[in-house]
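Quick illustration for those who missed Monday's session on complexes.
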Amino acid sequence: MAPTCSLIEAFADPEALAVAAAQRIAVLAAQAQAQRDVFRLALSGGHTPRHCYEHLRHGALDWSRIEVYFSDERCLPRGDSERNDVLAYDALLRHVPVPPAQVHVIPAEQGPARAAEAYARLLDLAHPLDLVLLGMGEDGHTASLFPGHPALRSKALAVPVFDAPKPPVLRVSLGLDVLKTARHKLFLVTGVEKHEALQRMKKGAQFPAAQVTGAQWYVDRAALLGVPG
Ligand code: 6PG
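Prediction with 6-phosphogluconic acid bound:
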């Protein structure tokens, strides 16, 4: 389902989008904690979320009741600067009092198959997640679910990816069903390079990002209008 206009919120620039996203996350955290005493959040990979994570450091969140998961991970050694969890720790997790045992990184250094099996067992106890943060690639991929890739059809909670078109080729991703069944899904999309994929989805292109139904989309002017930021 293409992101309908009612689900898209436009922002002047990436900074305004990051501030609004951090505020939205804080609201959803408080709601989840009031209803279920815990907020289960999956952080997105890629570079877009960095500013949102930096703003989240200063939000009034009760980190003692937050469990952190990841939408996907690259199969690189622990601590590699290209890993999604490294960005999350640098921009957010080492700056907030989240109990270390409540941060569930994907053990992607074990390779796609073993890491996906281990993470699926963990997710079996945790889903549905309260919020999954997601980005979108220029080809309409999200997490590590790429157009036409068999991982997109898997019903597994966490799926191995062996030939990702976006390096590194070896990855682990939350399965599409986990993304779809999350109570809230929030895409953060900035930059003129994302405009074409957004336009094609509005015309019905069933990219992986479009298959995460019922999501909110925070999009900046450059991505929405195709004009440089
Ligand atoms: C990854 C991400 C991926 C990312 C998009 C957008 O591991 O690469 O999970 O899905 O969110 O490719 O990336 P940018 O935010 O860097 O544009």
